[in-house]
Amino acid sequence: MRAHAVLLLAMATAVQAFWPSFVAVKQSFCGRKEALTLCAFKGTADRRDHIRSQVALGGLGALLLAANPPQALADSTGKYSTKQTAKKRYLPRVRKGVAKFQALGETLENPEAIKAYNQYVEDSLAAALALYGSSTRIGELPDPKSRTVEKEAEDFVKEVNAMAKGGDVKASYEGAKTALAAYLAGTKLEPLGDPVYKDMDR
Predict the structure, then answer these.
(1) DSSP assignment, residue 27?
(2) pTM above threshold 0.85
């Protein structure tokens, strides 16, 4: 903190040294009442002083920005797009989808329940799984871990779609269960059957 204070004081002194002088003069405006205005930058010396002051101000601004970097960048919608924000935003949807999937296991003989869950996955859960999974990457670009997690989410969605189309519903459910379990492990979320999912399927 002391070093920052000394640096800012030095920069402020430099700016003050370079700041151009302004001279108050009277000027006429087409016969109207004369007004007091500021006349600046007369001659080459004044223009040079002005350039120096702008450079000094620019340097001070750059130093302040470097010393206090923004914590998050806003996206085109004006919302913050940090990883932490993504996790908080999509985690409730992921957990709710897991709870609904566990409840679906008890109604596999009900085609309407399967179709309803498949629609829920397409409308909400698939996007939540993908976006939450992308928040696990270390840098700004996808890495092997995040790609694996996203692949597991895609496999889960495919198995749920297969359930809705008929065929071997139980086999598709087990396939979806395996993919979802791997996804939860990859994102370090609670495993299937954890109490955190209790009563979240409503």
Answers:
(1) E
(2) no
